[in-house]
């Protein structure tokens, strides 16, 4: 299907402009390439470009944090300020949403936020790979977050955690209906959490690629209009990359709050 | 109708979901601005909520876009 569509797009471009070239496939950038073939007990555990960029993200974050905090001073240097800023940012987010009870989970939320942020930002570098534009990556993240939070809720409250599905002050007649709705809404959380991040990253990068193809297709004379649009849109994409990491972390905080305090 | 044509029509219809995203984002920023002009001192405190609302509203429209892309590239 990919080839058929690409050929069709190329044909359409050919007809419109009369010269060769054609639009490249915007989905090509999401292709997973095997870098090192690995086979673990019959499972394909190859080291791919996706894995490579995850390693780069983790190394970057760790190296930056260690480097920024190498000399801790009362009056922070510039690099130390950045590290403290990110710490304060996530700590405030967690405190505002879960109160003091959520602070033991700060390392988890901080890691999550920095990891997703680094992956999104690395994706904005030309010719790099956006790990978060694959649903399987974001879904695995989201599924384990919700699973962990559910287990945490049962540990904290025992069977009482099920009260989460029965909001206070609901008339008895409506309870069976409300419980069903609440359970469904709880079960769709990993889905909405993962699809939100994945859809934003994939749609943004596809759009950038499509407009990049317009620049080439319209040539030296007409290409400036989509190029100007691309500059603005790239700025928006950087904002979205940050925003989606923020939303991912803040929703995790909100779900964590549900498990810690019920409602 | 050819199946190929139906595919493209379906993808186009799925993209209509972005109308809702546009309406939602417009509502959020419009209401934030009118609220901020009434009470500028409270505006800064609500900025994180503005961004959160923007991201949530945009995402719902993008769900539709994902459906369109799935129709185009998977089937």
From TrEMBL, chain A:
Question: InterPro entries under this entry?
Answer: ATP_synth_F0_asu, ATP_synth_F0_asu_AS, ATP_synth_F0_asu_bact/mt, F0_ATP_A_sf
Q: Which UniProt keywords apply?
A: ATP synthesis, Cell membrane, CF(0), Hydrogen ion transport, Ion transport, Membrane, Transmembrane, Transmembrane helix, Transport
Gene Ontology molecular function terms on file: proton-transporting ATP synthase activity, rotational mechanism
Question: Subcellular location, in the record's words?
Answer: Cell membrane; Membrane
Topology in the membrane?
Answer: Multi-pass membrane protein
Q: Which Pfam families match?
A: ATP-synt_A
List residues traversing the bilayer.
Answer: 51-69, 105-129, 135-155, 167-187, 207-231, 238-257
Report one GO cellular component: proton-transporting ATP synthase complex
Q: Which SUPFAM superfamilies does the UniProt entry name for this protein?
A: F1F0 ATP synthase subunit A
Name the predominant localization. Answer: membrane
Q: What does this protein do?
A: Key component of the proton channel; it plays a direct role in the translocation of protons across the membrane.
The entry sums up its family as follows: Belongs to the ATPase A chain family.
In Swiss-Prot or TrEMBL terms, this protein is called ATP synthase subunit a
Q: Which gene encodes it?
A: atpB
From TrEMBL, chain B:
Membrane topology reported for the UniProt record: Multi-pass membrane protein
The positions annotated as site (Reversibly protonated during proton transport) read 58
- Source domain of life is Bacteria
Q: Which residues cross the membrane?
A: 12-30, 50-74
Listed A to Z, the keywords are: ATP synthesis, Cell membrane, CF(0), Hydrogen ion transport, Ion transport, Lipid-binding, Membrane, Transmembrane, Transmembrane helix, Transport
Its Gene Ontology cellular component terms are: plasma membrane; proton-transporting ATP synthase complex; proton-transporting two-sector ATPase complex, proton-transporting domain
Q: Where in the cell is it found?
A: Cell membrane; Membrane
InterPro entries, alphabetically?
ATP_synth_F0_csu, ATP_synth_F0_csu_sf, ATPase_proteolipid_c-like_dom, F/V-ATP_Csub_sf
Q: V-ATPase proteolipid subunit C-like domain spans which residues?
A: 9-71
Q: Name one Pfam family in it.
A: ATP-synt_C
**Gene Ontology molecular function: any one:** proton-transporting ATP synthase activity, rotational mechanism
UniProt family annotation: Belongs to the ATPase C chain family.
Q: What job does the chain carry out?
A: F(1)F(0) ATP synthase produces ATP from ADP in the presence of a proton or sodium gradient. F-type ATPases consist of two structural domains, F(1) containing the extramembraneous catalytic core and F(0) containing the membrane proton channel, linked together by a central stalk and a peripheral stalk. During catalysis, ATP synthesis in the catalytic domain of F(1) is coupled via a rotary mechanism of the central stalk subunits to proton translocation.
Name the record gives this protein? ATP synthase subunit c
């Amino acid at each position: 299907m990919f080839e058929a569509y690409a050929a069709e797009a190329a044909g359409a471009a050919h007809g419109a402009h009369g010269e060769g070239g054609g639009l490249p496939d915007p989905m090509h950038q999401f292709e997973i390439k095997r870098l090192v073939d690995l086979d673990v007990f019959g499972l394909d555990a190859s080291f791919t470009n996706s894995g490579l960029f995850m390693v780069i993200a983790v190394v970057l974050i760790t190296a930056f944090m260690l480097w920024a905090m190498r000399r801790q001073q009362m009056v922070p240097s510039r690099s130390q300020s950045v590290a403290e800023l990110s710490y304060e940012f996530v700590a405030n987010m967690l405190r505002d949403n879960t109160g003091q009870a959520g602070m033991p989970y700060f390392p988890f939320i901080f890691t999550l936020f920095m990891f997703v942020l680094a992956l999104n930002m690395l994706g904005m570098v030309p010719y790099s790979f956006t790990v978060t534009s694959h649903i399987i990556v974001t879904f695995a993240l989201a599924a384990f977050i919700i699973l962990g939070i559910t287990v945490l809720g049962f540990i904290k409250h025992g069977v009482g955690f099920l009260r989460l599905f029965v909001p206070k002050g609901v008339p008895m007649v409506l309870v069976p209906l409300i419980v069903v709705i609440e359970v469904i809404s709880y079960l769709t959380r990993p889905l909405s959490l993962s699809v939100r991040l994945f859809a934003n990253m994939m749609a943004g990068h596809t759009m950038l690629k499509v407009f990049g193809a317009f620049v080439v297709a319209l040539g030296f004379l007409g290409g400036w209009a989509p190029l100007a649009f691309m500059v603005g849109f790239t700025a928006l994409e950087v904002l979205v990359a940050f925003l989606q990491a923020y939303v991912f972390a803040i929703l995790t905080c909100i779900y964590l709050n549900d498990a810690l305090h019920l409602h | 109708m050819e199946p190929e044509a139906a595919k493209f029509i379906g993808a186009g219809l799925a993209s209509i979901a972005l109308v809702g995203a546009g309406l939602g984002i417009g509502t959020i920023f419009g209401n934030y601005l009118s609220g901020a002009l009434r009470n500028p001192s409270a505006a800064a405190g609500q900025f994180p909520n503005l961004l959160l609302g923007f991201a949530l509203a945009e995402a719902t429209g993008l769900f539709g876009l994902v459906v369109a892309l799935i129709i185009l590239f998977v089937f």
